[in-house]
Amino acid sequence: MTREELKAAAVAMLDRAYIPYSHFPVGAALECSDGTVFTGCNIENAAYSPTICAERTAVAKAVSEGHTDFVRIVVAGRSKDYCVPCAVCRQVLREFAPDIEVICLNGAGEEKVFTLPELLPHSFGPEFLA
Ligand code: THU
């Protein structure tokens, strides 16, 4: 999948977001080293805290299908600001892909690109527990 196709896959997920409370859609497209792509959207809940972000939806789909080797993720929003991953999603990405490229889109489809170490410096990961 090209970079533009990956971005389009994340944007397409905005329409799948279940967001009756925040009305803030987020879409994600997570690419694995073998080219497999897993998409996700945010899924909110009336009890609020069970809400899952788009990025973690994509990670859960990937890991549960046997994929953990992630190379890049697109996070799409519809707001003026670039949709960056929340701290919890950064930590979840860190578990599997400490150097993943994170492509953040705003509502105009413009991008801002980060590496995970830029978003989550001095991070804690599995090797600390070895
Ligand atoms: N959200 C995501 O899906 N990803 C993020 O990294 C930031 C926040 C969602 C959670 C909630 O459904 C809505 O955006 C507002 O916080």
Key attributes of the depicted protein:
130 residues; alpha+beta; 5-stranded mixed β-sheet; globular; binds tetrahydrodeoxyuridine
Could you describe the 3D structure shown?
With 130 residues, this protein is α+β, with helices and mostly antiparallel strands. The chain is built from four helices and five strands, in the order αββαβαββα. It has helices spanning 3-12, 54-64, 87-96, 116-119; strands at 26-32, 37-41, 70-77, 101-105, 111-115. The structure holds tetrahydrodeoxyuridine. Residues 19, 22, 24, 26, 42, 44, 51, 53-55, 85-86, 89 line the site of tetrahydrodeoxyuridine.
Find the count of extended strands (DSSP E, 2+ residues).
Answer: 5
Strand content: 15-25%
Task: Give the % helix.
Answer: 25-40%
| Mean pLDDT rating | 98
The global form is globular
Major sheet, described briefly? Answer: 5 strands, mixed
Structural class, please?
alpha+beta
Order of the strands making up the biggest sheet: 2-1-3-4-5
As an assembly, this protein is single chain
- Per DSSP, the total helix count is 4
The unique ligands bound to this protein are:
tetrahydrodeoxyuridine
- Compute the separation of the termini in Å: 35 Å
Order of helices and strands: HEEHEHEEH
Low-confidence stretches: none
Radius of gyration: 14 Å
